[in-house]
Fold these 4 entries.
Entry 1:
Amino acid sequence: MSDRVTVVGIGADGWDGLAPAARRTVEDADVLMGSARQLDLVPESGHQRVTWPSPLLSALPGLLAEYADRRVCVLASGDPTYHGIGTTLVRLLGPEAVRVIPHPSSVSLACARLGWAQDQVAVVSLVGRPHELLYRELQPGRRVLLLGADCGWVAEALTERGYGESVLTVLERLGSPESQLRTGVARSWDDNDVDPLNVVAVECPIEPGVTLLPVVPGLPDGAFEHDGQLTKREVRAVALSRLAPVPGQLLWDVGGGAGSIAIEWLRTHPSCRAIVIESDTERAARIARNAAGLGVPELTVVEGTAPVALDGLEPPDAVFVGGGGRVPGVIEACWQALRPGGRLVVSAVTIETDAVLADWYARLGGDLVRIGVHRATALGGMTGWRPAMPVTLWSVVR
C-alpha cells in the first residue's frame, strides 16, 4: 500500500520554518488535519480542513475511514514520532501507510537553548497523563524536561519532596520569534502566568539530606505506606531478581499488600507494566497511593480475590504471588496464564505454604530458596542480632 497519510511536523515558527518538501506536502493535500492552532499556522491552499475533535483517540479511526480515498496530511507539533500523533497513526494504519516529515522537537529545541546534552536528559510527557510521573525521575543532579506540565504544581511538588532548591526554567513558544525563558528556584516560584505552549526544565540540586530512591530493586521499607503486609526490602530485591523485569513486559502481583513488588517492577523502566490483584479495599487504595507517590501512577489495581479476579486479564510475562499461595487454584491459574518464557515467583512464610511450594517444586522444578535476614539491634548495653521470619521463594520459568 502506498502512503495513505503524511504527517508533517510543524513548529511555533509555522509556515516559515517548514522545509520545501513539507510545504509541498501541505499544499498538495486534499484534506489537512490538525488542531486549530496548527491549522492556523499554514496558508489556505484549496484543501479541506478538519480540526481534531475531542476526545481524539476514539474518533481517529472513523476520521481516517471517512477520508480513506483522499490525500490526507496531518499537522503535528515538532517531531510527530516523539510523544506525538505520528506513532498513533502508525499503530492504527501500519508503517507502510504513514509517511512522517519531522520537524525539530520541543525537546531538541529546549536542549539547544539550555546547552544540555539531549542524551543525558530525562523527558517526561505529562500531556493527558498524571503529573506524579515526575517523581520517578527526581534524583540529585538530574536534569528533566517536562512536556505539558503545570509549572506551579511542579514547583510545589519539588519543594514538598525535598527538591526546593531545584532550578526551574520555563521555555515558552520555542522556535518562534516570541520565544522566551523564565528561570527561578522551585521553593520561591510564583510566576505561573505562562504561555500554554511551553516546556518546563528542572535541574535537581546535589545537596545532602535528599532521600535517594534508586530504580534498582530494594527500596527502603519506609518508602511504602503499609499495615504490616509488605514484602520486606531484602526479600523484595531477591524476588525481583528472579522476576527479571524487562522493558515493555507485564507483571501480575497477586495479593499485593502494599504493592511494593509491582511498584519496583514499574520503576525499572518506563515501559514496564503491572497489575496488582488485592482483595482488601483499604489496601487497594493504599497501593494506588504508594504507586503515585513513587512515580508510577500508571499501576493498575484490580480489587478482587484470586483466582477469580484473574479471569480476563492480559496474559503476564511474570507473576509474583505474595499472598494466597495456599488458596486452591491460584498457583495453577498463574502458571497457565504465563506467556512462554514467563517467570513465576511464589513466597511463603508458613510451614503450610512451604509444603505447597515443595510439592510444586517436585512437579515443575525451578529454584527453591529460603531467605533469612538478621538485623543488628540493641541488647542491653551492647548489640545483638535479631532474626526476621525466614521467607521461602519458589521460582520457575514456563
Entry 2:
Amino acid sequence: MLDIKFIRTHKKEVANAAKVKNMQVDLDKLLKLDDEKRDLQTKIETLRAKRSQIADEISTIIHKKEHNKDKIETLKNEAQSVKNMLKDLEPQLVEVSEALFELSLTVPNIPAKDAPIGPDESGNKVIASYGEKPKFNFKIKDHLTLGQELDLFDLDRGTKVSGFRGYYLKNELAVLHMAVLQFAFEKMLAKGFTPMIVPTLVHKEALTGSGHFPFGKEEIYQIANPGKLSDGAKITEPLYLVGTAEPSLLAYRMNEMLDEKELPLKYFGFSACYRSEVGSYGKDTKGLYRLHEFAKIEQVVICEADHKIADKYFQELRQNSEDILQALKLPYQVLEICTGDMGAGKYKMYDIETWMPARQKYCETHSNSHLTDWQTRRLNIRYKTKDGKKVFAYALNNTALASPRILIAILENYQTADGNINIPSELWKYTGFKQIIKK
C-alpha cells in the first residue's frame, strides 16, 4: 500500500510502476474516491460541530431562570435536521472509505531504479552463481525414479488420501526431510534471528497485510468450518491457511508502535505451508516440485525506513540462504527479478535457483524480497524515531529452506552409479546415515 498523498503527488510515477509490472489500476478513480471521502469527512465534521453547538445553546437556555421555550423548540428542530443529514452522510462515508481502501490495496510499490525492466521472467538477470554442476559418467535418473526404486515416497497413495499433488514421504526421505529443516533452523538460529513456530491459520488481516490479498488470493485455502468460541457460538470471521510463514511473522507486530531501539526485528519461522496452485495448472504435475502442502523456514526483517540500511539486510537475507545451499554443496544461481515478474509489492527481488540435473536447469528454491513500507502500511507497523517522529518501518523476507522441493536437488545431485544417494556431510548428524542404499 502506498500513501495516498504520495500517489496524488507522484501519479505518473505510480502509473509507470503499474505499467512495468503489467498491472491495471484505476488511479483516477482512486483519487476521486479520496476526494469524495475528504468532502464527506468535512461535511460530517461540520455537522457534528453544529450538533454540539446546538446542544450547548439548549443547555444554556434551560439553565436560565426564565427560558425561551420557542427558541428551544426551534433549536431541537434544527438538531433533528442535523441528525437526519448525518444519518444520510455517515453510511456514505463508510461505503466510500471501504471502496477507497480496497482499491488502494491494488496499487503497486515503486520498483527500485536499478531493477531490470522486463515483461516477464524472460527479463530476469543472472547476477551470481555457485558450484560446479555435477558430471555423471552414467545415465542419471530423475527424483521420481530414484524415489520409486529406493522406496522413498508414495505419490499414488498420497493422491488416494489427499487428492491431486498428495504425497507420502517414507523411510530415509522422511528422515532427510526433517534433517534439512533442522539444519536450516539451526543455521538461522546461529545467525541471531529469533526463532518462531507460527500460526498457519490466520485472519484476513494478516494476508491482506502481507499482500497475499487481493493478489494471489486464488492460491489461498479458506477453512470451511472455522470453529466455535468458548461460549459455543460459531466463529463467523473466516480463517485461511498460510502459504508461507511470512504473513504470520509480519502480523506478529501488526498495529503496534515500535521503538527505534528495537530495530531491526529479525525473525525466522517454521510452518507448514498450503497452496492451491491454481495459477500453475498443468505445470509440474508429477513429483515433489509443486505441491499443495510442504514445510518451510522463512526469514523476515523489519527495519528502519532507510534504503541504505534495508539494502544491507536484503543482502544479508540472500547470504543466509546462499550459506545454507553452499553448506549442502548444491550448485545454484541468483537471479535479479525484473519488474514484470516481481509482483505488486516488491521494490527489489532476487530468486535463487538450485540445479536439478534431471531437468537440466536451475529451478527456483528461494525468493528474496525487499518491499519498503508497502506491507507495513497495510499492517500499520510504525516506529518512533529519536526525535519523536512516527514512521512506517521497512519489511524484507526470504526463504531459508523449503522441503520437499530441496530434496529433489539433493536426490539428483548426490545420486551414484549404483542407484544409491549420498547424503551431504552437513546432514549426517541429523540423519544418522551417510547414504541411502538401494535394497
Entry 3:
Amino acid sequence: MTRYADRLLADGERVVLRTRQHWLAPAAEGRTAWGMLVASLVLVVLDTFFLSAGTLRDLFGYFADILLIVSLAWVGWIVIGWYSEDYLVTNRRVLKVDGILRKRSADSSLEKINDAVLEQSVLGRLFGYGDLEILTAAEAPVDHYSFLNGAPEFKRTMLDEKHRLEQEVYDFPGPPLRAGVPTGGPAPAAGGAPAAVAPAAATDGGSAMSSDDITRALGNLADLRDRGALTPEEYEAKKQDLLRRL
C-alpha cells in the first residue's frame, strides 16, 4: 500500500530512511486519554462486582460505559495519528508528514541544512528516541522532531545524504557541515573572511564521468536551481563543466 508521503516524492528522489515518533510518544503525549481509559475500567469493575442492584448502580454503570467508550475512541485516534506519521530522509530533503484526515507535510532541503541539534534524556538513550532540531545556515530552526524514533541514526543519515549531495553536485570532498571552504579551496582573504567560491566552479582537470552520472548530476543541478540554491549563471557554468567531462 502506497503511503501519502510516497506520493510527494519527486522524479529521481529515493527514500533512504523512513521512521516516525517512538512508540512511547502516544503514551506520553496522550496521557490524559490513557488516564481516562484506566479510570473508566476501574469504574466498570466497581459497577460489576461491588455495587448492589438499584438506580444508583444503573446511573453509575451508564457513566462508566460512556467514559469507557469516549476514552477508547480518544486513545484509538491518538494511535492512528501516530501510525499515520512519516518522517523521511531522501537523497534530496528531509520530509515530515503527519495528520489523519487533514495531512500536513513539511520538508527541509538538504543543501539548506547547516546543522542538527540532538537531545536525548536518559530514557531516550535507553529506549532509542530523542528530540532533533534542524538548523539553517543562519542557525535558525526550521523543524523540530520530538520523540523521534532512532534519532541518532536519523541525524547521521541526514548528514551523510547532505554530504553525498555536496560531493555529487558541487564536488565538495570535505566534511558535510560547517566547512568554511571546500577542501583544497582558496585560502581565506584578508581579514579572515573566506574567499568567495562559486559553488559551480569548473575545473579543466576534472575526472571523466559516465553519461549516466552526468545526467543524474544535471538533474540535481536543475533541482537546486529551481529551489533557488543556484543562480542561473552558476547552473550554466557547472553544466558546461559536466558536459566537458563526457
Entry 4:
Amino acid sequence: MSTWPTIARFIAAQGGAALVTLAQAQGSSPREVGARMVVAPDGTFTGTIGGGALEWGALAEAQTLLARQDGRVATQLDKALGPDLGQCCGGRVLLTIEKFGAADAAMIAALADAEQRQGIVTTIATSAPDGRLARRLAQGNEGRSPRPAYDVQSDGRVYERFGEEPSAFWLFGAGHVGRALAVALAPLPFAVTWIDTRPGAIPEAFPANVTAITQGDPVALLPRAPDGAFIAVMTHSHALDLDLVIAALQAHRFAYVGLIGSATKRARFTSAMHKMGIAADVVGKLVCPIGLTTIRDKAPAAIAASVAAQVLMVREQVQSVTERDSQIASDQVRHG
C-alpha cells in the first residue's frame, strides 16, 4: 500500500484522511506491528490491520475522529483481542489513529513525493503536542539498516518504514498459465516484466504492475533482468524454454528460476544440461515442476495461484537472509 500518496489523494477528494497504525502487539495478532490502513471520511479505506472486529472498530473510530470539530487529531485503541473483541487470536494490540487535513498538505506532499520516487522511505518521528507523530525523512545511513515497519527506540523516537520495494519478476510466455500468473501477481509485491514476441500473445489490457515486451529475442533480453530477479519460463517452445533456463541458471544471479512442466520435462532438461557440461549444483537450482507440488489441480488459475504462493515464500526467505546479513554488517561497522 502507498501510504502517503493515498493520504494526499483522500484529502484532495474529501478534505481529510486518517492513518491507522498497529503500533504494538503482544501475543498472537492478525497482523504484524507496522500494519496500516488509510481511512477517508466516507469510510473508504485502503490497507488492512487484520480484518474482523478489530478492523471494524478501528474504521469506526477513524471516521469518528475525522468528523470531530474540536481540534482533536489523534487517538489510541488498546484492545485485548479475546475479552474485548471476541477474537480468538489471544493477543493484545495498540492502535494509533492520526487525523490529517488540508493544513498538513505541505508535510504530506513531501512524504508522498518521497514514497513515490523511492518506493520505500524511512521516517524518524517524535510525539508532537497534538498527539500525532512529528515525522521527518531519515537522512543518509539513518534509514538503511533493516527495521520493522514501526520501531520505537529507547529514547522515544519512532522509526517507521513506508512503502514496499517490489521484487522484479520476469515472466516468459503468455499462454494460458502465463496470463493467469500475470493476474495472480497483480496485487502482490512484484514488478512484472512480461515477454512474449508472438503477435497478439500478450493481451492489450494487463495489470498495472506489468511491463510488456513484445519484440526482440527473449534470450537476448534476459540480461536486462536485475540481480535477484525471479524468472518464470513458460513459453510455447520447449527449445526456447531450454535456452532461457540455461541462460538464467548460468547467470548465477537470480533468486528463482522456475520452469513450467512435468517431472518428465525436468528430467529431459537436466539430462540435456548435464551433457552440455553444466555443473550439477547449477542444474539443481532449477525449480520444475513450478509452483507448490502439493496442489495437484492443473487448471491455469490453480497453477498460477501455486506459483504465486511459492515465489512469495522464496521472496520472504531472500529478504530474511538479506536483512540478517545487513544487520551483521551494520553491527560490525558499529563495533569496529
